[in-house]
Amino acid sequence: MKKIFILLLAVFAFCACEKDSDTAGKLRIELQGINAVEADIYTEAGNRIMERLVVEKETIHLNADNYQVKLFEYQGPTQQTYRGSEYIQITAGRTTTIRVTRSSVEVINN
């Protein structure tokens, strides 16, 4: 009986930890044919909360909310080209992907 109680307690503790992790979602930025981009992430109110240099692929954990992501192609320390701005919604427990290529910027909600 004591072993069953300990097992149930462990299962409940694991479930409680999993529930807390679902309050955030992920933003994945993938590059194809581009060396690097700078991603500036803004809240819905327009406050910049993060500036990240992305090389190839990166995953960023964000609270569930609406964001604006401004993308600049990084071509050297003094040269950047504006690639566009995307409005995204991060959903708890889900991943939103921004795929940047030479010719387009695509948002994929998974």
What does it look like?
This protein has 110 residues and is α+β, with helices and mostly antiparallel strands. It is built from one helix and eight strands. It has one helix spanning 2-21, and strands at 24-32, 37-43, 48-54, 57-63, 65-74, 80-90, 95-101, 105-109. The radius of gyration is 19 Å and the shape is globular. The relative contact order is 0.23.
Give a concise summary.
With 110 residues, the chain is of the alpha+beta class.
- The helical percent reads 10-25%
- Rg (C-alpha, Å): 19 Å
Compressed to H and E, one letter per element, the order equals HEEEEEEEE
Nearest-integer average pLDDT: 83
Quaternary assembly: single chain
Helix count, per DSSP?
1
DSSP E strands, number:
8
Largest sheet: 4 strands, mixed
Regions with little confidence, pLDDT below 50 for 5+ residues: 14-20
- Placed side by side, the strands forming the largest sheet appear as 4-1-7-8
Q: Report the span from N to C terminus.
A: 43 Å
Strand content: over 45%
Overall body shape: globular
What structural class is derived from the secondary structure elements? alpha+beta
